[in-house]
Design a protein that fits this description.
alpha/beta, Rossmann fold, 6-stranded parallel sheet, two-stranded antiparallel ribbon, 20% strand, globular
Amino acid sequence: MKIVLIEAGLPNDGLPWRTWTAKDGRFTSPSVGLVSIASLCRTEDEVCIFDEKVDGAGEQIDADVAGISFKTMNAYRAYELADKLRQRGTRVILGGLHASLCPQEAKQHADVVVVGEAEPVWRTVLNELEKGNAKPFYISPMPGPPIDKLPEQRVEVLNHARYLCHSVQTARGCSLTCEFCPTRAMFGAGFRLRNPQMVIKEIERL
């Protein structure tokens, strides 16, 4: 299948905050979550990452499956894009922080909603979508997998020239209990640390 993993942009509202973290048309860093998901796609799949912050609007994306990740500030844009892609026959998977916290809302705009970290269920989602028997919701176990068990990041799917820097994930989760923060709801309590040697290896590849 042709799979496009999309980082949703912001509504075209003209607000200056759209460029606070941009310089010379490049955004600071890509989504480490989408790079991780790209690494879990099947060998027979054609995979790319489309970042609306640097690649522009994604309405004309041609794909069998579109996975859209978004936060609350991107929700309006993510739903707008999902609706347009579905009208063109693309099957849409929604995930990320906002979809995980508001799955019923997200389902109105998607074929599938992934709740929580997508890595444990991603292959199952793709296989069942292809067979035509996908479930509406896939709920990832909590806490998520040890991040040392995740595959090597497919950094080659990124257009590195469009970014000022690249992020390297060293941990997931949080031990704090801030009421306003969704991190624990998404990634669980406590930290899951990554082996420092794996971090160094990834940095050397970038």
